[in-house]
Amino acid sequence: MILPIVAYGSNVLKVKASPVATPDPNLKKLIANMWETMYNANGVGLAAPQIGESKRLFVIDATPFAQDEELSKEEVEVINGFKQVFINPVMIAETGEEWDFTEGCLSIPNIREDVSRKKEITIQFLDEQFIEQKLTLNGLAARVVQHEYDHIEGILFTDKLSPLKKRLLKGKLNNISKGKINPDYKMHFSIKKTRK
Fold this sequence. Notes:
By secondary structure, this protein is an alpha+beta fold.
C-alpha cells in the first residue's frame, strides 16, 4: 500500500527513532509498504519516520544512480543492484575525506543542495530475515545509507547546511511545512494544506 510521505515540519522527522521490536508481526507488511511508497515517489531510500513511524528502519534501492554518467565504472558496479533493508542499524564508523554531493529528500520536495559527508562507512544492522549484517561501503552507496541513517537519528539533510543556506531556503521550507506545494506523490503535512 502506498503511504503518504511525512513533510518537512513534522515532529516525527526531528526525533531519534525507537528500536524495532524483534520479532514484530507487522514488520513484513510495513517493509512492503515502504518499498511501494518509495518506488511510487521515485526515491532511492525511505526511512520509517518519513511515513510517520518512529522506528529504526529504512530501505534503500540505489539502482537508479547506476544511470548517472558521471559515476566511475567501479561505483556503478556497487550501486547497481544495491537494495537492502536496514533494521536497528548502528553506524560503526564514518571515515575518509568529506566530499560534496547534491542531495534531495522525499520529505523535502523540490529542494536539492550540496551536502558534505565522509567517504566511507561501516554499518551493522539486521536484514529482513533478522540476520545480523555488517557492511563497509564507500562513495554513493555510503552517502545514501548516511542520509537514511540520519532520518532515524532525527536529522534532515537541511540540518547540515550552512546558516546562510538555511536562511535562503526558509521560505521554501515554510511552504513545504504548510502544504503549499504540489508533489507528484502522496504527502502528509503537519499543518493542514491550504488551497491555492
